[in-house]
Structures are given as structure tokens and as C-alpha cells.
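request received
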Amino acid sequence: MSAAISAFALRGLPEIEQGDDLAALIAAAAGDLGDGDVVVIAHKAVSKAQGRVRRLAEIEPSERALALAAEHGKDARHVQAILDESSELLRAERGVLIVRTHHGFVCANAGVDESNAPAEGTLVLLPLDPDGAARELRARLRELTGRRPAVVITDSFGRAWRLGQLDTAIGVAGLAPLDDWRGRRDRRGRELHASVIAVADAVAATADLARAKDSGEPVVIVRGLSAQVQELDGPGAAALLRPRAEDLFG
Amino acid sequence: MSAAISAFALRGLPEIEQGDDLAALIAAAAGDLGDGDVVVIAHKAVSKAQGRVRRLAEIEPSERALALAAEHGKDARHVQAILDESSELLRAERGVLIVRTHHGFVCANAGVDESNAPAEGTLVLLPLDPDGAARELRARLRELTGRRPAVVITDSFGRAWRLGQLDTAIGVAGLAPLDDWRGRRDRRGRELHASVIAVADAVAATADLARAKDSGEPVVIVRGLSAQVQELDGPGAAALLRPRAEDLFG
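response:
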């Protein structure tokens, strides 16, 4: 069976602030949510609601941050914030620090970003536990609406060998993050090899197409995936991380 | 402005064979194509129409292919086909060869695949010039329908640090492959940093959600991107390749 997929951005959400009940704002703006819907949220809305924001003026850079900042033409306090979010620095070049975050994501600058920050001189961090945040948002949406849409929290990640960024799932609840076709057979009866579809990442990328970057539309509803939306929250975006023992490029 | 995106797989396409007029088959199955539509085609349909298929029995493995095959538990003729498609072998581990193809794509096994091959003992290769193939398909679709939908040819690529595969654009005509927001400003007037959206890859990922892997649906129509669909064919998927001089992980 082929499915028709659709995605549209929610309008009318206010600027998110610390302590906001994000699920209530989404439920109000979305109107009719379905059990098979996926609510895709740009992480900054979640991070701001959580207060995952730091003021540059309150950051004391370490020697290492000062050295990296000097070498890469960055603000040492910004570099310190990146290092604080990271378990490992993989590469530093052309003003970008490629790190492994404490969550295990390999990305540029640990997702620490100035754009769309709540005020000048502040940095927005990734949520502390994006899978946990997705589960909480899902539970609250269910409480408010009586429906159990899946929740995906996203960030824009670069890629090692391709230009441009792709929105990527960093927190997932209620959506199968991977769809594993290995062992199933193709139309000629031959076993399909290495076909594990990163569904949650594909959903994140789809949502980004429905949103304009400058329009303050952090939430997109993706429809047509009821086969992948599950009653249980499932393993989350953690299941999308390649184990370090299998990392060929770290 | 937010856009509503939709995607649906074309039904009723026959199994593609060498010499088929793929654009004519698509035009017949699609019915009503619009100028702003994106026709997303799994590369195997294009490769098969082009005859980019090799018989294992006709491949003579080199010493290098024999050694790699022995080390990684693969068929040496299959390894030879992969090497023939590659300019560089980046990693070989766990039965997977990560290569740079002659086109410049970094992917597993140079996209050479047995599943959904036209017959036992055959391998399907990537198209020789996927951007050229996309341009030809677009021109032929225009000739047949009077419309100028964009064309994206895709393959499923793994990722260095994430599990699962994501359909990725390997050939593009008529769609801006990248949407560059750098220098534009966020809602507070601050310049947006490093926001270049890999639109063509997001479209490829979206299309894959609308298709079931076992159902023989190589073509998906993605709607709602008329702002990104252009009269000119544009730079193609080649514009998505990170230049080798900027490769931190090769």
C-alpha cells in the first residue's frame, strides 16, 4: 500500500518562553489532532520552554575554549557553551566544531545557536533529554486532546559529505524511528539487504519543507503515517544513534 | 508563508526494462502533472531503463577485489563492480565498502545492489550521469505533458553517525537543490547562520515516506514546492556534494 503524506505548519503559535505549556499551545493552534498524526517541533521551541538558554555574559571560558576560539575566530564563551554540551570534539575547522553531544549526536557546535535566541547575548542549547521531552509532550497532548499523536523534536544537522542541512530527529515518542525491511523480500522474492529506513529522520526532513525558516513556525503536523505511529512511545531517537563501536568516521 | 506539502506514490507503473520510455510511463500513470510538482524517481527505475545492469557471470574480479571479498565475506565479482564504480575506497568494514563514486557521492557499495535487480545474478548500478538523466526526463515530461515539473532521482544512503538509511537526491533538474538563508535575518533581525537547507534531499526523504519498499512504486509526486521549482534545470545534485578540500571525514 502506498500512503499519501501531507505536512503543514501550525500558524498562530506565540513566541515560546520559559515555562510555557508548549503542548497546550500546540493543541490550541492545531485544532483537530489525530491518533496517527506526527507533531514535529523544532527543538528551539522545546529548549526555550525548558529554559535551556545561557547568557554569554555569565560564561567563563576555559583555557581550551580560549585557544579554540582564537584558532577558529569564535567567541570563547560560545565555544565554552559548546564544549559544556559535548563529550568529544571530533573536528575543528573553518569556524565549526564537530562534536559528539552528551546525548550522542554528532553535529556542528553541539546544536548551540544564537539565531532565534530569546534575547541578544543568549545561546539556545539542545534540550537536556529530547526523547524524554518528546514523551512528556506526547503525554500532555494526549491529556489535552484525547488523541495520541506521535511527537518528533528536530534540529538541523549538516552532513559529512553533502552540503546543506537536513532537519533530523533528536527526540521521538510514539513513532517507530526505524522501519526495518531486512529479511523481508523484494518483489522477486530475494531478501532485501540493508534496508532500514530512518523514518523519524525522513519525517523531520519532510516537516522542514512545510516551514519557512524566518516565519516563526516551529511546529509542523505530518499526516499519513498512521502505520508508523504507535500506542507505545518506543525507543526514541536514541535508537537512531550508531553505536560508537560501529563508528567508522569518528 | 508556510506551504502545505503532499506526496503520493504513482500506481500502475509496469516493471521498468531497458529502453523503456520512463517519462512516457510516468506521464501516463500520473495523469495531471503540474508545473510546480516534483517527480521523485528511485534510481533503479532509471538505471534499468538505461541498461545500467551487470551480470555477475561476466565480471572478472581483480586481485584487489578478491582480497577485499575474502576479507569481508562478499562475492568478489560484486566487489569488482563496486570498485569499477568508485574513485576511492574510504572504509571497508563489516561487509560494507564505503566509497566515493565517480560522480562524487560517498555511499555504501557505490550504490551497486542486487535487490530489485531484473534477474538473478545481476547487479543494478547507479545511473552514469544522474543529473543528466534528470534533465532528460524533465525535458521529455515537458514534451509529453506541456508542464515543467522538476525531477529528482534518488538512492538510499546510510549516514556516518546514524542508523538507518535516508533517500537522498543523486540527480536533480528544475528544483533548487539548496535553499540558502545565510545573510537573511531571523525574526529579531539577527543574521541566520549556516542555514542552507538541502531541499532536494528533504524532497527525496519525503518521497520515501509515501512509498512502500516492497511494492514496486519507484515514482512519487511531491506537491507544494512551487517556490523551489524553477524554469531552469539548475545546477543539479552536483551542487550538493561537499568539495573534497572541505571534507573533514574522508
